[in-house]
Design brief:
With 391 residues, the chain is mainly α. Helix content is 79%, strand content 0%. The chain folds into two domains: 192 residues, Growth Hormone, Chain: A, CATH 1.20.1250.20; 174 residues, Up-down Bundle (Growth Hormone, Chain: A). It is a multi-pass membrane protein.
Length: 391
């Protein structure tokens, strides 16, 4: 019978502890998460400039931006297959170097086809580092024998804040998009270079077959898709929701997502201690219930009290995805690298398809009903918390 474990899983416990549970590998993992979030967020403030360079409509720009998602979905399963053989290090480096190389090109491309190609590579690089850094994080966490995943994901959120805030500040100071992109790439490259020698090195093993997700992995992937769907909906629709209900002035439309992001980051920075204290099942249970309560408050409360709902949603969802990734790395139904890739890919599909689905439901009914449906979907997380946490 073929052994489905990853090469790192075949190491003895003493070998794993000495090679993975070190301050160096934890630092490398944090830097990888930070760099991915930072470079990804640097692109967001550059989008209007890219649109101006091309002279395209909103619809045409939307089609071009789909290339990021297409590139990511292509790269994620391949990265899982590679990581299941040799660990996450090679693909962390490939994805990181790809991101920092392509970002400056996004600032100057004036041909739609060239931008589509650049965005495809950008998305593939993002998908590669996303899967690989989570595979690496799983190995480091398993060796440490204590929760670390929430803290790693918090670094991604902090990188996002730093990237978007830093690039916005540079552009507001009338720095050119190219100069800003080069600065962003330089900082991202520095993080990757510092992480490089500290990343966990795994010996090559027997290549696992590319298999469809099965068993517990399907459940984990489905719950991840729901959680990612909520994050994407809050990002894309929270401002319109607040304006539709006359809860804020038009200039304050971003307040809901800002509160959500702050709460999520705070929840992840303290999440490892919380998970260690209550366990994975209770983290999923109470996180899901808190998220549902946030939606109920957001939809039922009046005035500024409704904004507290965004805080509850951010706190509730903060540690759900990290726990799901940890569980994907610990299960034995399929190789850990492939399982993490499956959870990431299916979860990312929720980010891509979710906001569009919310738009269709909102058009047919109302945005409030669409948000009630999100609350109903999130209720599946506490309902499924026991089987999802069982290994």
């Amino acid at each position: 019978m073929a052994d489905d474990r990853t090469p790192s899983m075949l190491l003895s416990e003493p070998q794993m502890a000495s090679s993975a549970d070190t301050a160096r590998t934890r630092l490398a993992t944090r830097l990888s998460f930070f760099a991915a979030g930072f470079i990804m967020a640097c692109w967001a403030p550059m989008v209007p400039f890219a649109k101006a360079n091309l002279g395209v409509t909103d619809g045409e720009l939307g089609l071009l931006l789909l290339c990021i998602g297409i590139g990511s979905i292509i790269a994620m399963p391949l990265t899982g297959w590679v990581s299941a053989q040799v660990g996450g290090k090679p693909m962390i480096l490939a994805g990181g170097f790809g991101l920092v190389s392509v970002l400056p090109a996004l600032a100057v491309v004036t041909d739609p086809l060239l931008l589509a190609a650049a965005l495809l590579v950008f998305g593939a690089s993002l998908g590669a580092i996303d899967v690989a850094m989570n595979v690496h994080a799983v190995e480091v966490e398993k060796a440490a024998r204590r929760p670390l995943m929430s803290g790693f994901h918090a670094m991604f959120s902090l990188g996002g804040f730093a990237g978007a805030g830093g690039m916005t500040w540079l552009l507001s100071r009338e720095v050119s998009p190219l100069t800003g992109a080069v600065c962003g790439s330089g900082l991202g490259l520095a993080a990757i270079l510092v992480a490089w020698p500290r990343l966990l090195q795994v010996q090559g093993g027997k290549p696992p077959a590319l298999v469809a997700p099965r068993g517990i992995v399907l459940l984990l992937a489905a719950l991840a898709a729901i959680s990612f769907l909520v994050e994407g909906a809050i990002l894309d629709w929270s401002a319109l929701f607040l304006l539709d209900r006359d809860l804020v002035e038009p200039t304050q439309g971003g307040l809901g997502y800002t509160l959500f992001s702050i709460a999520m980051t705070a929840g992840r920075l303290t999440g490892d201690r919380a998970v260690q204290a209550v366990g994975n099942r209770r983290t999923l249970l109470w996180g899901g219930l808190l998220t549902v309560a946030g939606f109920v408050l957001l939809l039922a409360a009046q005035g500024m009290a409704a904004l507290v709902g965004f805080i509850l949603i951010g706190l509730g969802t903060a540690n759900i995805v990290p726990v799901l990734f940890s569980q994907a790395g610990r299960q034995t139904a399929m190789p850990a690298g492939l399982a993490v890739a499956a959870v990431t890919t299916i979860g990312y599909a929720g980010v891509l398809a979710g906001p569009a689905a919310i738009g269709f439901v909102s058009h047919a009914t109302s945005l409030s009903i669409a948000f009630w449906l999100l609350a109903g979907l999130m209720a599946l997380v506490p309902i499924c918390s026991r089987p999802a946490a069982r290994l």
